[in-house]
Amino acid sequence: MGKNDEICITGYVTVLCFLLTLLSGMVCGQGCSPKNYGTNKYVCVCNATYCDNLHPPEELLQPGYYLQYTSTQKGKRLQPISMEISTQAPTTGNVWNLSSSVQYQEILGFGGAITDAVGINLGTLSNDAREILLNQYYGPQGIGYTFVRTPIGGSDFSLRFYTYDDGIADRTLSRFKLAEEDYKYKLPYLKYIKQLSDPKVITAPWSPPEWMMEARNATVGFTRLKDQYYQIYAEYFVNFLQAYQKEGIDIWGLTAQNEPGDGYYVYFGINSCGYSPEEERNFVANNLGPTLQKNNFGKVLILGCDDQRTVLPEWAEVMLSDETASKYVSGTAVHWYFDDDYPASRLTRLHDSFEDKFILYTEASYIPGANEPAVLFGEWKRAEKLAKDIIDVINHWVSGWIDWNLALNTVGGPTYLNNNLDAAIIINATANEFYKQPIFYALAHMSKFVLPGSKRIQLDATDDSGIENVAFLRPDNIVAVVLLNSNDDARSITLRTDANTYIPVILDGHSLNTVIYNKA
Ligand SMILES: *[C@@H]1O[C@H](CO)[C@@H](O)[C@H](O)[C@H]1NC(C)=O
Ligand SMILES: *[C@@H]1O[C@H](CO)[C@@H](O)[C@H](O)[C@H]1NC(C)=O
Ligand SMILES: *[C@@H]1O[C@H](CO)[C@@H](O)[C@H](O)[C@H]1NC(C)=O
Ligand SMILES: *[C@@H]1O[C@H](CO)[C@@H](O)[C@H](O)[C@H]1NC(C)=O
């Protein structure tokens, strides 16, 4: 796989860079090959032979030192500096206490999605460039993704509407088979990343076969599963799990439906199926849950909702307060699209009522504003907004975050519905290269440093400087603190550790930072 050499070289560059930083205090590059699309609009360009990579941060940690990684609007990308931890309390400025013994939720991980559109775009790259791209997310020098989401059948990021049993009613599912898209666009890449880091696979259907639904009218919306097909549809899930298992892909978790609320929108247009919370509860309790168990898929986790937090906590309460449904449901899946309009306190209310059920974000992407292209090259504001939301929801009990399409083309597609979107990586097929957008780094500041099994810990941020913050204790006893400065000017704060030592941090204007140090 010709790319390993390059990753090694980049790794050495990082080590050199680190030593130089230690010796001279100078900041040096991380190997991002920048391309500029206007003032402060940088992407990092990667191709078949080159991509910026991260040396494993924990290997660079020296006793008595901390590491700070910074990305900025002005163009830094995960740039490390290393500084000595101080035993002296600062005489001025804000001191924020960290208490690693005060622990909150456990982190499950971070990830993105492989849709048909992603597979189509990956197919436009040369083999080497494609493998480098997937390594950026799931490889040893990538950003540490441990989740991948993939649709059951077609989604809006497909080239057509399809399920695994299209045509006239087929009560025995005799026609069930995976689609050409599974073999061309999804399974090859799921198999590839499985051998890189074996991420947890989470899935959901966008729609059942049309014959299972009340008269489908995509113009008007409101489609739902017909009562007589609830059990047959549960068996359809089993067929899917078996077919993927035969291909070597085991599913970690699923939801009964992607955005069940969409089916209730008039003129929604995207493949969907409407469930009320009561209908989803009934389907899971009476059909899906027991049918998975009976067919040896009882280990596959079922999550509820998979929709905007607009419907929380009420939706989840319907599912989780039902004794039978609750037996089968491990947690609640949430999408980020209306987070601006509905406060994160809804997540805390949900957590407080059902402390043993986790909350996981399963989809996020930018919906372009009116007259705005879907893809904004090098747009830092999007990175800042994303980072702010991730920090916010994790401070409200969320256990992980899954981004939407891993890679789209230069106009944010393809999709047969023309609902193009931005993505962390944009592929330029003509040039056989891809661009790592600022949002790639916003995700990396979490995913690379906050390992699965980390616990969120107490951080007393005592001033109103507008620095978004969240802290974790990792299973390897490293503390990771993520700090976002959305102000134009630099800010400085001091972190006080449990060991009564002090970490002075300077946060550049419009910067995202991750600080790590050994707790013990
Ligand atoms: C790939 O990127 C590297 C680093 O920017 C550059 O030196 C090289 O020429 C590029 N290769 C191609 C084929 O464009
Ligand atoms: C931080 O801890 C120190 C030492 O225990 C204490 O004096 C100080 O009041 C704490 N600050 C806050 C804001 O809790
Ligand atoms: C969908 O519903 C609209 C409004 O009632 C109607 O005009 C249209 O003909 C329907 N389409 C189909 C395919 O039934
Ligand atoms: C894609 O690559 C082509 C060929 O190098 C170049 O002309 C074009 O500007 C690139 N597109 C973007 C969005 O950078």
What descriptors fit this protein?
TIM Barrel, 2 domains, 22 strands, single chain, binds 2-acetamido-2-deoxy-beta-D-glucopyranose, 12 helices, 8-stranded parallel beta barrel, disordered N terminus, 520 residues, Immunoglobulin-like, alpha/beta
What CATH architecture label of the largest domain applies?
A: Alpha-Beta Barrel
Kindly state the percentage of residues in helix.
25-40%
> What is the CATH top level name of the largest domain?
Alpha Beta
Q: What general form does the structure show?
A: globular
As a whole number of angstroms, the C-alpha radius of gyration is 23 Å
The total number of structural domains is: 2
Number of helices: 12
Helix vs. strand class = alpha/beta
Which compounds are bound in this model?
2-acetamido-2-deoxy-beta-D-glucopyranose
Largest pleated sheet: 9 strands, mixed
- Content of β-strand: 25-35%
CA(first)-CA(last) distance: 39 Å
Strand order across the biggest sheet? 4-3-22-19-18-17-5-20-21
Given as residue ranges, the uncertain stretches (5+ residues, pLDDT < 50) are: 1-16, 20-30
- Overall pLDDT, averaged? 92
In the CATH hierarchy, what is the superfamily of the largest domain?
Answer: Glycosidases
Counted beta strands? 22
What's the CATH topology name of the largest domain? TIM Barrel
